[in-house]
Design brief:
mainly alpha; 7 helices; 2 strands
Length: 162
């Protein structure tokens, strides 16, 4: 399964927003700068997160994006669905019913085994993502980030959040 790169971007951006002081926000421009991403493309993903109710945006000085609720109450699946939509990834077109061996659709009592296997796998994937909070992802990121990168990040945030 190949996922939209915007999913990675959105999860990283939400992790950064989760790490901000409660009254702080970051504009799309600054989030794009922090990760060296194209601002306009990232802004579309941030809008999708906003429409899904995961982030709020404020205009004006000190404005930008912030999480709409605590990171512990946002799952990775919430972010994935905001960016990628809720439709199943596997779309069965019932090709087994076509061609020279196809028979009347009434002869098929259930979806094919391929479709059922794919849907079970997707359910397991979604269940796993639903079990992981943004807070957990953020905590893991902080534990695994090299100390020099944390220092550089803190300096950058100190300059940006003045």
């Amino acid at each position: 399964m190949k996922l939209n790169e915007g999913i990675e971007w959105a999860i990283h951006c939400c992790s950064i927003l989760a790490s901000l002081p409660e009254d702080a926000a970051l504009p799309a421009r600054r989030l794009a700068e922090f990760f060296d991403l194209p601002e306009h493309y990232l802004a579309k993903h941030l809008q999708a997160l906003s429409q899904a109710g995961l982030v709020n945006s404020a205009k004006g000085p000190g404005g930008g994006y912030r999480l709409s609720r605590p990171a512990a109450n946002i799952t990775v699946l919430d972010i994935v669905l905001a960016i990628d939509g809720t439709e199943p990834h596997f779309q069965c077109t019932e090709i087994r019913r076509k061609g020279p061996s196809g028979v009347d659709p009434a002869c098929y009592s259930k979806p094919c085994g391929i479709a059922r296997a794919m849907w079970r796998a997707e359910k397991a994937w979604r269940d796993e993502l639903a079990s992981i909070s943004l807070k957990e992802i953020t905590d893991i990121g902080m534990q695994e980030t090299p100390s020099l990168q944390i220092e550089k990040s803190m300096e950058w945030f100190g300059n940006v959040l003045k």
